[in-house]
Amino acid sequence: MHRTENIQQNVASKNIVVNLKNETSVSLRRILGLGTAVLMVAGSMIGTGVFKKVVPMAATGLNETYILAAWVFAGLISLLGAFTVAGLAKATTESGGKYEYLRLCFGNFIGFLFGWANFIIIGSGAVAAISFIFSQSLASFLPVPELFNSWKDISVAHSIYPFANAGIKIISIIIIVALTLFNYRGIKNGAVFNNIVTLAKVSGILFLIFLGIFLSNPSVSSTPGRTIAPPQGFSLFSIFFSVMLSAFWAYDGFVNVAAISGEIKNPKRNIPLAIITGVSVVIVLYVLVNFGFMKSVPLSTLASLRNGKVAAIVVAQSVLGKTGLLIISSLILLSTLGWLNVGIVAYSRYYYRMAQENVFFKSASKVHLVYRTPYMALFIPMFWSCVLVISGSFDVLTDMTTMASYCFYIMLAIGLIKLKRKGVIKEKIAAYPAAPALFILFTLIVIVNTFINNFERSITGLGLVLSGIPFYYYFKIKNKHTTHR
Predict the structure, then answer these.
(1) Domain boundaries, the chain
(2) Phi-psi category of 471—alpha, beta or left, where left has phi over 0 and alpha has psi -120 to 50?
(3) Single pTM value for the model
(4) Phi, psi values for residue 45, rounded to 5°
(5) What architecture is the 29-484 domain classified under in CATH?
(6) Residues 156-173 as b or e (16 or more Cβ within 10 Å = b)
(7) Containing H/E element for 141?
(8) What is the pLDDT of residues 4-45, one digit of tens each?
(9) Residue 223 Cα distances to 215, 300, 314, 317, 318, angstroms
């Protein structure tokens, strides 16, 4: 009897060892439906931008019509981008989103530059930045201790202060680690959480629209602010596109759902539907809520807001007092948490797919045998995002890569035209070829405007992206040797 049990235990142990060796060959589960995909699109778009971007927009001197036009045009251009990504989604059922599309269109090298830029700066930096905003918002509810205050002036190269804002940074790290561990235990966990949070965010925005349009009284709720001379001529054109850039920041994120193609049922149908539906809903919400902001609070007052004040809080507080402040502060807290959840899931799938193609740490291609998640692809960027939180450099780094991000968007549109002409994508694509062509045109205008107004940061950002070149060859050589062992 004991001998039989020992034999069974040995066999089980051997099976575990064999299975662990096969973690790189285990596939992800396709368990998410269309409804979840739509909510993931909306959840990855609705962050903090919609609640506060109208303040810097008002400070430019543009009137209400121009500001609303900026939200509408930025939304329509984002919709063109949505049609473009929806077309590319018909080319593959693999995970990886933008990385996979760029790889299919232009090869491993271009795909890697995008994926590496996301790992080292864009994605990890965004997770660090949003977690920091979450912690700052939480600090308005709960007192955060001033830890290591005596060390706050200690710096690295007079630019990195690891002990400054230590309490906020520790909370940021805790939330990044907690959400990573939560999503490590299965994609379904993250999806259910996203559905709940996104529905709450949409309800909160509808509440803000109702407050701004129907309940507020500008003459009572606002005090006069400073008057700004409206821009004229070429200055008007340049400022309008700068304002559109702020709106783009709030609209960005619709492509994240494509990163989890390997976990969505019927992705060639559901991802295009989810992207187009989600973006359309968000455009309507954003335009209406900003109309509500400007109807309830004069632009001169919005332009005068300082010290990081948020338009949504001003509107809600003017109507509901402290209750409004509490409700909208909670909504912003929820929005950052929801975005972080989607971002952590989506970015990890880039690195998972890169590892499968031998251009990232090979361990990132492992899939957990029980939870069926790419757990190392979750843990590796988690560590780097925490390092960026400690460094406090995430805002500067992500600002530097704005132009590079839009360059990759243009390449996606060019790639769609390329795949369609070659016959790789045979299915009919909505709004093709108008959508990718117009998306290229308008995005080029934004890129040129960004380059002119932020020349040094744009060049530095492109340099940071190109710094991934030696890492590309390092991974190719290292993983080639590992594969042949």
Answers:
(1) 29-484
(2) alpha
(3) 0.86
(4) -95, -40
(5) Up-down Bundle (1.20)
(6) eeeeebbbbbbbbbbbbb
(7) none
(8) 445 444 444 444 444 545 666 678 889 999 999 999 999 999
(9) 17, 9, 11, 14, 11
